[in-house]
């Protein structure tokens, strides 16, 4: 059982690392695309403004400002692509306990170590019919339980650790 938990934790760490890497790569691609578009726009305008002269160093101050703005935007710090615990939604401790109780009951009834998120949401809302869980509460509860190494969420499947 301990080996399974260790393996699940390693898998969770790998997934988190990959998500962060994809976010960083996506940001870099967007920055390069913006920079390339600025260069292409500058080249197109310079080519159409030429009076037959072929001077590669002939830039207007307007073109130079656009290129500098694109370069500055490419190097500007960006918000993290991965949701951090500080940016996650909050769930009240009493609601978290209600969710944990419903989740534990479902895992026991199903005798499973992983369940689809939709099934968990339906069961939790059935258990708390007078005050159903919102998507935000559900995600906040799972995020808290993931942080506490109790469950892991991947591809809308919740794994019991």
From TrEMBL:
MCM3-like winged helix domain: which residues?
90-161
Top-level lineage group: Eukaryota
Instruction: Locate the region Disordered.
Output: 40-62
A Pfam family (short name) is: WHD_MCM3_C
Q: Where is the composition biased (Acidic residues)?
A: 51-62
Its name, as the record gives it, is DNA replication licensing factor Mcm3
Give the species.
Answer: Eumeta variegata (Bagworm moth)
